[in-house]
Amino acid sequence: MANEIQLISDGDGLAVIGNATDVERFLVSEGLSSKDLGLQRLKSFVGTGAVVAQAGSEIAANSTRWVQLTRDSAQIVKKYGLRESSKTGLSTGVVKGHKGQIRGFVEFVKGPRSLLTNPAVLANAARLMSQVAMQQTMDEITDYLATIDAKVDDVLRAQKDAVLARMIGVGFVIEEAMTIREKRRGVDEVTWSKVQTAPTTIAETQAYALRQLDALAEKMESKTKIGDLATTAKEAESTVREWLAVLARCFQLQDAVAVLELDRVLDATPEELNGHRLGLKAARQDRLEHISRSTERLVARMNAAAGTANAKVLLHPSQSPAVVQSSNHVATGVHDFHGRLGIESGRQSSETRRWVDAAAEARDKALETGAKGVDAARSLGNETLDRASSVKGKLSNGIAERARRRRGDE
Fold first, then answer.
1. 285 with 386, same domain?
2. What percent of the chain has pLDDT over 70?
3. Is 308:226 a contact under the CB 8 Å cutoff?
4. Do 71 and 205 lie in a common domain?
5. 194 shares its domain with 48
6. Nearest-CA neighbor of 250 among 314, 333, 155?
């Protein structure tokens, strides 16, 4: 199958399979970065028979790369018109080249030599794609926790709740299972028995952390005085970061369990692999949406507090900008957290109203403010505006670079 590139997309990633030279040429021509998918490991899983043996030989001869689907790279799926299967949820197709050049048209191959017509290969390729995607998220979260210098274990130990205490032990067990999996290239019954109860503890810890964020949002909503808002908003800066770190660790461990689970299903009931993969994918999306609702609710409350502070800028020249600054800090933290988990988010941090405009409005309403107070307010306001502009730039750049669950327009 010279000069042919076989493509498989699961909505989150794109597998590019073919001769190493052709694959590299295709990736370069489309401007795509990739990592090794490790499809060669499927040779022992595809079964027996003449057709399957041919597929196994083709796997061994091919290069397999995985491309994360972003808003830009997702256009490749549309560009080449990949055909989606309602049964597997996968989109597949073949890009043919001419004289060493990959050209943009698709031919759907039905012959026995195509990997795309082998159910066992497709199911296992989809498993590997899901595992690679989840492991990338796990790496993103590791970097995130290092960046914010979050000592998750310290946060958990500080709580009296027994569920949170068990979370530390669960993390050790899962990490051990992942190490064993890497060494033996699979998950046996003994290894799986160690981690199969872990999801309960992780889910309880996640629920606890979400309740803490919800409680903080309600507390912000109940405050009407600028002094109380400033105090609560300042407390939120460190508190929110801690609970976001706990949520990130929960999500990381849940992905690790899913990686182990897919290998275990492959070994125990391979005929159920694809259905189980789709179930895990749906459950993962539900978790993301639950987390998103809770964190966005908190950001909305912080934004409302910033709005209240803006309305009272001249009456409270020191406390009002403090509320806005804390609100921006929390919003930035939440958006960074969203980006690491792959949650799409469009809200940017709130900007303070220009203090000169606020002073003009206040003057028009005959508010008595001394010249010194106005100058102080303007100085504080400009400083906060500079911070807000910096926050905006960081948010837009961070989301573009790090968001992991990005899809093309529906």
1. yes
2. 67
3. yes
4. no
5. no
6. 155
- How high is the mean pLDDT of the chain? 75
Identify the band that residue 187 occupies on the pLDDT scale cut at 50, 70 and 90. Answer: very high
For 239, the token pair is 């508190």
Distance between CA atoms of 385 and 382, rounded to whole angstroms?
Answer: 5
Could you list the residue range(s) of the whole structural domain that residue 12 is in? 4-121
- What does the block give as tokens for 197? 């109860």
CA 311 to chain centre: 35
Instruction: Pick 312 or 270 by higher pLDDT.
Output: 270
Distance CA(351)–CA(348), nearest Å, equals 9
In a domain, 142, yes or no: no
**Residue 316 DSSP label:** S
Category of 26 on φ-ψ map: left (φ > 0), alpha (ψ -120 to 50) or beta: alpha
What does the angle CA 269 – CA 271 – CA 274 come to, to the nearest 5 degrees? 105
Q: Select from 99, 128, 82 the least CA-distant residue to 25.
A: 99
In this predicted structure, the answer to whether residue 186 has a pLDDT above a threshold of 90 is no
Tokens encoding 260: 């182990």
Domain membership of residue 338 (yes or no) is yes
The C-alpha atoms of residue 107 and residue 60 are separated, in whole angstroms, by 23
Per the structure, how many domains does the chain have? Answer: 2
Residue 226 inside a domain? The answer is yes
Contact (CB, 8 A) for 66 and 132 = yes
Are the C-beta atoms of 94 and 7 separated by less than 8 Å? Answer: yes
Tell me: do 172 and 112 sit in the same domain: no
Identify the CA nearest to 43 among candidates 225, 185, 142: 185
Tokens of 39: 């499809």
Query: Is there a single domain that holds both residue 48 and residue 176?
Result: no
